[in-house]
Amino acid sequence: MGEFLVVSDLLKILFEEVKHPSGRSYTMQEVSDGTGISLATISQMRTGKIKNPQLNTLRELCKFFKVPLRFFEVRSVEECYRVLQANPEEQTPEISEIAFRATSLSPEAQQDILTIIKWVQSAEQAYKAGKGDVLPLPRLTKFNEQDADR
């Protein structure tokens, strides 16, 4: 897998693509006022002097620009624009955090998480349909009998 896009490039895209309600780009001062992040910090992030901002700083930027936290975990410009085009109403903080945390997992672990999510969906559907029986959790990719004893 390739490297993540650098924060300065991601901020450039946010400032270009996410518009003020009047249709113009946001100013750094407006972002500073709206996030509580100092103007100097925003400027240093945009110029690349700050390459690894604190998680809380990224969270505040995400809230301001109404993008999920996984926006800062993209590896390509195309992926960045896909995240921006996602429906923001569907992006709850929990969904954003699940996606953000899953990016650091191995492909096998990501598949396991997907299996668990599908199982929970089936269990919810069965419950809503009045069926009290919950199907057993499907086997995960790396599960074995020794793991059950832990």
Present the secondary structure layout.
Blueprint: H1 7-17, H2 28-35, H3 39-47, H4 55-65, H5 77-85, H6 93-102, H7 107-128, H8 145-148
List key phrases describing it:
150 residues; mainly alpha; 434 Repressor (Amino-terminal Domain); 8 helices; elongated; disordered C terminus
Tell me what the structure shows.
The chain is mainly α and 150 residues long. The protein has 2 domains: 7-89, 434 Repressor (Amino-terminal Domain) (Orthogonal Bundle), CATH 1.10.260; 107-148, no CATH class. It has helices at residues 7-17, 28-35, 39-47, 55-65, 77-85, 93-102, 107-128, 145-148.
Question: In brief, what are we looking at here?
Answer:
The chain has 150 residues and is mainly alpha-helical. 56% of the residues lie in helices and 0% in strands.
What is the strand tally?
Answer: 0
Q: Mean of residue pLDDT? A: 83
Question: Structural class, judged by helices and strands?
Answer: mainly alpha
- How much of the residues is beta strand, in percent? under 5%
Largest sheet: none
What is the element string, with H for helices and E for strands?
Answer: HHHHHHHH
Question: How many domains make up the 3D coordinates?
Answer: 2
Rg, rounded, reads: 20 Å
CATH fold category name of the largest domain: 434 Repressor (Amino-terminal Domain)
